[in-house]
Every structure is written in C-alpha cells, then in structure tokens.
Specification:
The chain has 151 residues and is of the alpha+beta class. The protein contains 4 helices and 8 strands, in the order H-E-E-E-H-E-E-H-H-E-E-E. It has a 6-stranded antiparallel β-barrel with strand order 1-2-3-6-5-4. Strand 4 and strand 5 form a beta hairpin. The longest helix is centred in the N-terminal third of the chain and has 16 residues. The C terminus is likely disordered.
C-alpha cells in the first residue's frame, strides 16, 4: 500500500512540477534565513534551477547545502548543489527538458549559456509534504517511501 501511495504522490509531483514552476527556495546566510522565488523544473526527485554560480543563493548554498522549498501545495527539504555548467555534455538531456519547460522566456536574453558561471542548481529532495485533493502525502525521498496518506 505504501509503495502505491508513493507512486501516486510521485505522479502528482511530475504532473504538478514537471514544467516551468515557481517555487520558494530558502537558504541560510549564517544564521539568517533568506528566501526567494525561482523558476524550477522537477524531474525524478529533484528540482533544477538555471542560475548564476556567483549569485547570493549559490554562495549561501556553498556554505550550507540544506535548503527548504515550497510551491503549489508542496513543502520540502533538500540538499542543493551546483552540478555544473549548462552546456556540459552530461547535462544535454536535462537541458533539453529545461529549455522546453522554460521556452516562454529562456531564450529571450534571460539566460546567457556562454557565461562560464551559468550553472544548474540541483535540489535533491530528502523529504516533503504534498497536498492533493484533501490528501496529505508525507514523502521520504531519501528512502523513496510515503509515510502517510491522511485526509
């Protein structure tokens, strides 16, 4: 039953976030929290953000990689990491998905892929709470299990 609930929750996550999604990303700057809205794309337990390696959020993540996120009836935690430049060969398939999801604005001067500091931020989810049609799914992404499906 738990595996079926997790499969249902993951399908909802894909339906809801496997597109251009605005999420709130919370980081720590010392002991002071900072939060900002970012465009993100969800795929297989992670959110991906195209950003600049020298930005404040990336500097904060470098010092403290645990982050909080929130968006469209989902809250969670994850481990954030700069996985490298957007044009790296190993990111080709992911970047095709991201460019497609962000097509309304991505190619209109908002992202400079030739800038050596343009990178992909991966937020690998560890846990979260997803609400859908009155059901609360408590998700353990680290162990890929759903710990509760409560109305």
């Amino acid at each position: 039953m738990k595996n079926q609930m997790m499969a249902t929750a993951l399908a909802i996550m894909e339906e809801r976030f496997q597109k251009d999604s605005l999420i709130a990303l919370a980081t720590l700057d010392g002991d002071r929290p900072s939060v900002r809205t970012v465009d993100a794309y969800y795929d297989q337990g992670s959110f991906y953000v195209v950003t600049h390696a020298l930005s404040g959020k990336m500097q904060q993540i470098e010092r403290h990689s645990t982050v909080g996120i929130s968006g469209e009836w989902f809250t969670g935690h994850g481990v954030a990491k700069n996985i490298g430049h957007v044009l790296l060969q190993e990111h080709q398939v992911l970047m095709e998905k991201i460019r497609c999801a962000f097509q309304a604005w991505y190619g209109n001067g908002h992202v400079n892929e030739t800038d050596p500091h343009t990178c992909i931020l991966e937020i690998r989810l560890t846990d979260g709470v997803l609400m859908h049609q009155g059901v609360r799914y408590e998700l353990d992404f680290a162990n890929e299990q759903q710990t509760g499906g409560k109305p």
